[in-house]
Amino acid sequence: MSGFRFLFVLFFTFAIQWPDRASAVETWAPWEASLTSTRPYANPYANVTVSVTYTAPTGEHTTGKAFWDGGSTFRLQAMFPKPGVWTWRTTASDAANAGLHHRTGTVTVTPFAGSNPLYASGYPKVSADARYLTYANGKPFLWLGDTAWSALIAASPSEWESYIDLRKKQNFNVIQVHTGQGWVKRSRDRSGNAPFMGSGPSLQWNPAYWREVERKVRYANSQGLMVYFTAIAEPGPGFPKTNTTEVRRFARNLAARMNGYFVVYAPVADGIPTPQIDAAGAELAASAPGHLVSAHPRVKFDPAQAFHDKRYTDFAGLQSGNGWVHDPYLKEPRKAFSAPVAVQNAIDWTLALYNQAPRKPVINMEGVYDSMRLQNGENLYYQQPYPVRLPRSMAYLAMLSGSKGITYGAGGVWNWGNTGNQATIGWPLDTALARPGATQMRYWFDFFSGMAWWNLVPQHQLIYDQSSNPLNRMAFAKTPDGRLGVAYLPENWQITLDLRDFAGPVSAKWYNPVSNAWNTTAEPSLVANRGIYAFQKPSGWEDAVLLLTVQ
């Protein structure tokens, strides 16, 4: 062997065995590293897997996966909860691939010094009592979501950023997206990229498409908003959603690509448990052990109950919906939606999941849409015009019935301005984004953020003058220590409550959820906690919230 050739081989050997250069990142911020495959594959997306072990400065281990990102490039993504020097090491299914197998590196992690609430507080988890979500540092996390179902495939990068900026100002902290088409007729994103390429043994994801998805997630996280991926078992045009092997493979790769981001996963959107959906859920739980997994069930209660019992769901997802009285996924005669049914679902289904064992936090992640067609009462779709207040009413009713978070939706936003024949298509995108309903959700968030909302327990039985009209059903919740209570009145002029469980005389204030205004003069300064008392809503208000506190 010539001297030059010997030096080249020696250099190449050290290049593929020497530990990768150290890198640095702040706690909970996204980190990435690249690997270069030294062997060709007919389908690198399917033919090789790369596992990663991350070791903390204190010796604990977490695991992840690398993912194929086009050509010979594989990437690692992670976020680190503790400062110090972390190490990582890969294991490839093809041990002969020196570019992927037994690669190592170090990451110097420093405390986060910025103001981003995600990076400052850490990835959410389930509370110790399994009633609500908290950030990693224990601070309660109040979920305020928005449905932008089709935005991954339909929104341009600039549109997405403007949308995120707007929702940030309105205090939204979760954006719910459909991993596939989002119920609109698009097969490619705005840059012309399809989610998948090939078929059969050559099926693989399109790195260009998923890089754009990742950029959208990164931008949302950078502004303090998480992204909730639904429908992971059916992730887009050209994907064989009945093939369990491909479903698991995609779930594993998406978890790898999103491992460094604040995302939540649901294997399903508007669905029921199936072998493929359960396989996706199990794969997500295994491949993304540090991330939350839930489900976005079909608009019936049975699927919500079934997913609640799945081992892979960390919290109970609920779609109380617009008042469906038929199943749109079955061959049933189409029937008009019902506003009274929508209200009853938001209360009764939420309560039932709240009381279902095993205990899990409940999030009502799709209630009544802020929809032009709903509010116009088109006979084709609805039994009667829906009150314009219904989206905000649902938020308060569900929250006081046990939900520990709410998701808003507007016709025109969820479908990103795409036209179609669905009932909640609604306004053009710009008009839908300007709806006052989203601002009223900010008021909802600010109202509950000012109290120990996570301790509220539904106590509707303490209402003595409950309405028999479902559209006027009231809700009441209080804390076990008897020092805080909240009631919601849709259009009722008063609410009569049993106050004997309060810890002392109560101070009463009325809150207007439309104008964000308070009224402190409508009631006596203190009301005795000795029996029942009728609180009368300020005149001229449509709906109202009553806040009761004990000093």
Produce the secondary structure layout.
Elements: H1 3-17, E1 23-26, E2 31-36, H2 44-47, E3 50-55, E4 61-68, E5 73-78, E6 84-92, E7 104-110, H3 117-121, E8 125-126, E9 133-134, E10 140-141, E11 143-147, H4 151-154, H5 157-169, E12 174-178, E13 196-197, E14 204-205, H6 207-222, E15 226-230, H7 244-257, E16 263-265, E17 269-271, H8 275-287, E18 296-297, H9 301-308, E19 316-318, H10 339-354, E20 362-364, H11 372-376, H12 390-399, E21 405-408, H13 429-433, H14 436-449, E22 457-458, E23 475-478, E24 484-489, E25 494-498, E26 507-512, E27 517-519, E28 532-536, E29 544-549
Parallel strand pairs: 1-7, 11-12, 11-21, 12-15, 15-16, 17-18, 19-20
Antiparallel strand pairs: 2-5, 3-4, 3-6, 4-5, 6-7, 8-9, 9-10, 13-14, 22-23, 23-24, 24-29, 25-28, 26-27, 26-29
Helix pairs in contact: 5-6, 7-8, 10-12, 12-14
Please state the average pLDDT score.
93
Question: Which percent range fits the helix content?
Answer: 25-40%
- Spatial strand arrangement across the major sheet: 1-7-6-3-4-5-2
- Rg on CA atoms, Å: 25 Å
Which shape, going by the Cα principal axes? Answer: globular
Number of strands: 29
Biggest sheet, in brief? 7 strands, mixed
**Class by helix and strand content?**
alpha/beta
The end-to-end span amounts to 88 Å
Strand content: 15-25%
Count of runs of 4 or more consecutive helical residues: 14
Low-confidence stretches: 1-21
